[in-house]
Design goal:
With about 170 residues, the protein is α/β, with parallel strands linked by helices. It is built from 4 helices and 6 strands. Helix 3 (about 85-95) packs parallel to helix 4 (about 150-165).
């Protein structure tokens, strides 16, 4: 479970590094970032503590060093990182970016596999981000994973951004 956020971080970092090694020299004002980090989930959620909140500060300092304007870096930390706030932050980001923008999205927190609902996964499971307000344990009619952000939804959010910034 702890492996998914790490793999996502590596993927995003590689994508970002690739943009710079291809001599893309965007205007600094067109760099945007959404940083999400959860270190302390609510005790009743049964999620173990992490250091995701500390990761946000590390990533932010790196982005500032490579030219991201401070005002273009949005952060959601711990209790701010609910599913609703994360989705609103994606919508806000989409309103700010334009063609040729560089966008960095970072999530540090728990990940979870959930039953695939649309049969697009070979293993029968979707991978999901676990927002602050998502309890760990399944409870019929109470917690059925409704606060998770599954990879299908993330794909849609990221595809929208990719469409807006162009190739």
């Amino acid at each position: 479970m702890k492996l998914y956020p790490f793999l996502f971080l590596i993927f995003i970092s590689i994508s970002y590094s690739t943009a710079y090694t291809q001599n893309i020299k965007p205007e600094k004002k067109s760099n945007y970032a959404l940083l999400i980090g959860i270190g302390s989930y609510p005790p009743e959620s049964n999620w173990e503590p992490l250091h995701g909140d500390a990761d946000v500060q590390l990533v932010k300092s790196t982005l500032l060093k490579v030219g991201f304007p401070r005002q273009n870096i949005s952060s959601l930390i711990n209790e701010e990182a609910t599913k609703r706030n994360i989705l609103l932050a994606f919508e806000s980001l989409k309103k700010q970016i334009s063609q040729k923008s560089i966008v960095h999205i970072h999530f540090s927190g728990h990940g979870q596999q959930v039953q695939d609902k649309n049969s697009d996964e070979i293993d029968g499971y979707d991978e999901a981000f676990v927002p602050f307000d998502s309890p760990k344990n399944y409870k019929p009619k109470i917690n059925v994973g409704q606060n998770l952000i599954a990879d299908d939804q993330l794909d849609s959010l990221i595809s929208d951004i990719r469409h807006l910034i162009g190739s």
